[in-house]
Amino acid sequence: MSSYSNYTNSPCAACKFLRRKCISDCVFAPYFPPEEPTKFANVHRIFGASNVSKILHEVAPHQREDAVNSLAYEAEARLKDPVYGCVGAISVLQRQVLRLQRELEETNADLMRYASCLGGETMSAYGGRRG
Amino acid sequence: MSSYSNYTNSPCAACKFLRRKCISDCVFAPYFPPEEPTKFANVHRIFGASNVSKILHEVAPHQREDAVNSLAYEAEARLKDPVYGCVGAISVLQRQVLRLQRELEETNADLMRYASCLGGETMSAYGGRRG
């Protein structure tokens, strides 16, 4: 949960951005504190305040902070890279996983060759790893 | 580029969804063909038609298909998982990369131990792999 609480007189970053009164049960207030104005500006620019509000109402209260943080991450990624957004990061990671799996397979094959050079006597002590 | 072209009489999926006339230079038409109505419905639900249109105008024409496909991927992921969206896939992949890197390091260490058992004579033929 964010450090924001309604005893402060400042409207939350969302209400300030949208120039509206920040009511006591404002759905944005716990996740968009006034000291982080860019977080709301970003998600508003990419998803729109109304869609963010819809998502917040769709998820359980204890999951809202995670939902806001993942939306803020996606929004920032899309602003940095309008073509691929955070899907670009997924592609990079998928390629990295494939490369590591291939390297691990090759290293395991090397390990097997070494083991056969040693007559396989100590193979059970090491074993091959499989990704 | 999508197979959609304006010689068809059907409005694109976006204009049909938004109940508006599909003009000849409609920014959505090449990427939201009428036979794929869900693709537009999803991006509209998560990003809003106006934000999608803004992003399309921001990127170069040759990058628009990639932009639409990444938006459609993100929208589908967010509809499936409203809390984490495609950021959930990023977390899973990041953990997989860390696990594979650790396994590769351990396998390389095993390889080094085997090499020292063999007196290091043939080590240069194998070498250690580093993730």
Mind explaining what this structure looks like?
Chains A, B: InterPro entries: LOB. The structure is a homodimer of 131-residue chains. The two termini of chain A are 37 Å apart. The first copy, chain A, folds into two domains: 8-80, no CATH class; 82-124. By secondary structure, chain A is mostly helical. Chain A has helices at 13-18, 37-46, 49-58, 64-80, 87-117, 123-126. The model of chain A is unreliable at 1-7 (pLDDT under 50). The radius of gyration of chain A is 25 Å and the shape is elongated. In chain A, helix 2 crosses helix 4.
Largest interface by residue count? A-B, 49 and 50 residues
Q: What value does the Rg of chain A take, in angstroms?
A: 25 Å
What average pLDDT do the residues of chain A reach? 88
Shape of chain A: elongated
How many helices of chain A? The count is 6
Poorly predicted residue ranges of chain A:
1-7
Family (chains A, B): Belongs to the LOB domain-containing protein family.
InterPro entries (chains A, B): LOB
Protein name (chains A, B): LOB domain-containing protein
Pfam families (chains A, B): LOB (PF03195)
